[in-house]
Amino acid sequence: MKLENRRIVLGITGSIAAYKAIEILRNLQKAGAEVRVAMTPSALKFVSKLTLQTLSEYPVYYEAIPEDSVEIRHTSLSAWGELFIVAPATANTIAKIACGIADNPVTDLALCFGKGIICPAMNVRMYENPVTQENLKKLKQLGYEIVEPGRGFLACKEEGKGRLAEVEDILDAAFYWFVPKLLKGKKVVVTAGATREYIDPVRFISNPSSGKMGFAVAKAARGAGAEVTLITGKTHLRTPYGIKRIDVETVEEMKEAVLEAVKDADIYISAAAIGDYKPAKREEKKIKKSKEKLILELERTPDILKLVGERKRRGQIIVGFAAETDNLVENAREKIEKKNLDGIVANDIKKGIFGSDKTEVFFITRKEVSTISGLKEEVALEVIKLIYENFFKGVE
Ligand SMILES: Cc1cc2nc3c(=O)[nH]c(=O)nc-3n(C[C@H](O)[C@H](O)[C@H](O)COP(=O)(O)O)c2cc1C
Predict the structure, then answer these.
(1) Candidate list 99, 112, 119, 156, residue with the active-site label
(2) Does 112 qualify as catalytic in the annotation?
(3) 153: domain CATH number?
């Protein structure tokens, strides 16, 4: 998670979810950010200023008109901060921000920042009230990012939409905030993870792909402003915020999902570790372990990347990931030609790529070769940037 040295101002308002602001603060810090806190008078009744002051290592801004300070904190904090997050955001504060009312530290800051991330948390009827919806719509139009609340059992014992979004989702939104919007308006389909080919109902052939690279690419594309569909094999990874996820198991299922999703996609990025072979026959019943030796006959699975290449529309960009042991660049260029691709991100599997948080890749097009190394999140951001620079820059 890259929020290294980012300066973030966290505004807390009077919601029962205010205690979660402590976790948000801690996680933003863990991601590398420096965080300063502002609270409304109501928020002070839910969580202690002392806790937030201690954790942020900075005095909390809690009085709009302080008795004994010469610092004008709504202006100084908004000049210091690169991002303003209101979490949780009450219906009341959302309404005030939408109207430009500035009568407490959080609303004063909102008017100074003029944009930021708003994380609503409230009773379902308050949330669904057309006034709140109108206010949120207005904030969106003004450049605020709204991290939608979740559905569930609310503190008021009612069921519905209104729970503060998950902390990880709020962190994703903060991460997206800092990514240049190079792919704004583009539709991107990404595949991730390993496929499974069943031998019988309880056994399968697969590979050790964790899905981390594909998920990082999907996240980077979403951060760059794209509408992202992530088609993934089995993985324990959480779906990044704001991404449509489709779960599949076999190559055949992945093929169906991909061919449907790429129909209107601008970019297809194949980062899944797709099995090349599957058992010629899938036994309906569990194979008994009575025989000493068992010979498994395998047959080829469909080549999804090639199929997408054959159906490629004008202007559509296709980038594949390839794990290679030798002749990285030559093999990649051969694949680009054979499969009608635009680029290949080639991994050297001798360097061990599976499961790790770090990677080293070559971004190979017909004309260029770039080396990228670092955390998978950093590499993914670079891949997205190179896709933009190679295929979209100057085209719009
Ligand atoms: C126990 C309790 C829980 C509340 N939870 C919420 C909430 O989750 N969301 C909300 O919009 N208002 C909630 N309210 C109402 C707000 O606290 C109230 O509208 C207040 O004026 C908000 O002030 P602020 O927006 O300046 O922080 C709650 C009130 C109480 C007493």
Answers:
(1) 156
(2) no
(3) 3.40.50.1950
